[in-house]
Amino acid sequence: MGVLIIRITLNRVHAIRDDWSLSASGTLDEGVHLVSGDVGSGKSTLALMIAGLFPLSGGSIEKEGITSTMLSLQFPELHVTGLTVAEECTSWGVSPDDILGTTGLTGKRDVSPLSLSRGELNRLHLACILAKNHDLLLLDEPFSSLDCEEKAKLCTRIGQTSQGITIIFTHEQEILPRVTRIWEIVDGMLVDCGTPPDAFQNWHHVPSIIEKLTALGSIPDNLSLDDLKEAACRIRG
Amino acid sequence: MQDPRIRIAAASILSIAAFISLLGALAAFLWWLVFTPRFMIVKKIRLVFSLILMIAFFSVVLELFGGNGFSYFCRMTVIILIGMWVFGEQQSGEFLNIGVWLFGTRMGFDIGLVAEMGIQSLSSVTADLDRIRIAEQIKGKRWGVHSLVPAVLVLVHGALNRAEDAAELLAVRGYRSGGTLCPVFNTGSLDRVAGLCSLGVLLCALIPVSEFFILYR
Lengths: 237, 217
What we know:
Chain A is of the alpha/beta class. Chain A has two domains: 7-68 and 133-196, P-loop containing nucleotide triphosphate hydrolases (Rossmann fold); 76-132, no CATH class. Chain A is built from eight helices and nine strands. In chain A, strands 5-6-7-3-8-9 form a six-stranded mixed β-sheet, with helices on both faces. In chain A, strand 6 (136-140), helix 5 (148-159) and strand 7 form a beta-alpha-beta unit. In chain A, helix 3 crosses helix 4 (118-130). Chain B has helices at residues 4-20, 22-35, 39-44, 47-64, 69-89, 94-138, 145-172, 189-206, 209-216. Chain A binds chain B through residues 48, 51, 53, 70-71, 73, 75, 77-83, 91-92, 112, 114, and chain B through 128, 131-132, 134-139, 141, 147, 149-150, 153-154, 157-158.
């Protein structure tokens, strides 16, 4: 029996809107990919394009072995279709009891999802999305409105994903998961920075903590807090 | 059209002309064909199709109950096309400029600011609606009547949040009423021609053309 390959190939994909454009080429294999870039650089548009929800102005996207795709939009309130938190969980096809327990929202079962704080709503939304396995999971700014503790939990959860392609589109600089490959959007073009730690040298949006650690001669293996701690400990000796 | 003063004046005149009579609507439609980017607007603002469909529904109802549904449909469609043209051509800050130009830096500034915020809110609602439809698609749901209640709740909630943010921002920046602004307008020669022609359209709507035909009969 052959091994199932899960892969996305971007063949000179580009999108043009008024005086703004975005070009992307490259291959994304199984694992966790980080796409960084400034606000307005086109991260959300690229996520929509890969999900097949934004018309391409040119090029093509080839998907191999992908049977289920999930995209988490930047603003979780736009996903809301349930009139209560429990209904919202059900609308994602997941059990409210499971989700409310893990997100600490048990007492808010019957309130409107729109009455939750932005952080609570994002937590609920991400818990619903991550409750199922997807061959292709696209997370657009998943860390927004989350506190450090929740960001760390999300990184752990993403790190537990054992199969498929996960692409994180973010400008987050502090708390990130271990990633397989780093990409960034610079001047309207998707650039493949490579795999960590080598990617740190080519990465324009490299987090300042990694820059500092590198300057002190201790390059972290990856982006997670554990990797950063380990690199910091190496300096102390 | 570069000058927003002429654009808004022309749109108001054309809307009145289109509303007055079928001939006025026809003349206004011809004006729309000559002086606007026409179908580029229709392509850009897809909301126009939904609005025309809604007008078509009411026109059919009107026709069935003895009213002149056809005339209503034609007149309202032209008004919608003109409205969409104004909306599509509008640039950020134009209403503020017009408000100050018309009524000065106190009341004019306030009116312009309210208009700017209204237009901004409308743009945000349109963008949000597009994203909500995408979000429904992601959940594997089809867009339909059942989607309206949650979508409207999300849109109203978003609009209220944005209004609150804007109010807080204005308060933090010390806004009480009025402001300093020197409005600047660029008036092209085509703007003047289009403005004058819109007056011609209004004349067409006001003059009882059928009376002339009676004279020649």
